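Quick illustration, no need to memorize.
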Amino acid sequence: TFKTEPWLHQLVCVFIGLCEPRFLFMLDMGLGKSKILLDLITQAQREKTLRRALVTVPRLINIDSWTEDIERHSDLEPWPISMSDTEAKREALLCPKGDVTLIDYQGLHWALCNKKKGKKGVSLVRDDKLVKMAQKLYNFIGLDESHKLKNHENLWFGLMRQLTKEADRVYATTGTLFGRNVEDIWSQFYLVDQGETFGENLGLFRGTFFTAKMNPWKGTVYSYNVRMTRQLNKMLQNRSLRYDESEVNDLPARVYRRLNLDMSPEQREHYLRAVEGLINSGGDSRALEAPWLRMRQITSGYLSWKDDYGAHVVKFKHNPKLDALERLIDEMGDSKIVVCYDYTETGKMICERLASLKIDHEWFYGGTKDKPGS
């Protein structure tokens, strides 16, 4: 039984997950990856095989959306770990009070590592005692947006490699298994099936699907052998299932979702001042306009004003809206996206964030020179 009725593709994924304790689900954004994991956790709890579930997510903002999904799709009790203090994170992770612990990859990194001074400064080193404690607590692990763990040399991968080793059930979800580099496949599959599909080490995977050439500056360079594509696709079917949006026929035409975001402390301070100005306006429509505009700017992440010295713009260090947009774009994979906004400064900030992420984009606004070309 389900708290919310699943779509057909979700039912298929849940059935496969019940039969295969280690599996990778590749679904486009909007196809309900989180509900699949929550239904699997719920069933494990009913069968009394669940100690506790750990779901790892890319960013802190993902924790909020996951908490909402847990309340919507299940009767499980979420245990979100979003505090900034490292010791508090560690205590919350190792002394959970809910059914599903939610933590971002960076937070997990801080919680299970210790600082160590070296010649190059302070670094984080994995604490194996803490890792073993986490292994005993969590026997169900969900890797949300597993492509964030594609780098096999990253500490995030090393931590998840240890945590998934002893777990009874491990499921990964992603909409983008790999981008330009096919090599990204190996690390994600290894975390799920411990090397059953593509081998226990990267060298074997490279030797099968890549050609090696010596480069005098870069050393050995591996290039994907396109003639192995059919064999690669066949092997992918061993522990994964792919659903494209076009293959799902029972989706509603459109689903609207409002994202509620918390303002940063800096934003909140300025916002309360603007609210005070709104209250002191006395209800005069002209006097209301300035504080109302200021409030909208603050929630967008900046403040602007003009004086005798010209126009000025101050941007807040932390912008929850841009963080949420980055998450949505990341989940969309290669899909085309249209982002609408009200103020030119907002559009400028969005473009700056996209440029920092090296995402190709076009900005269409009043100052665009070639409007038809754009």
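Residues 285-300 form the longest helix (16 residues).
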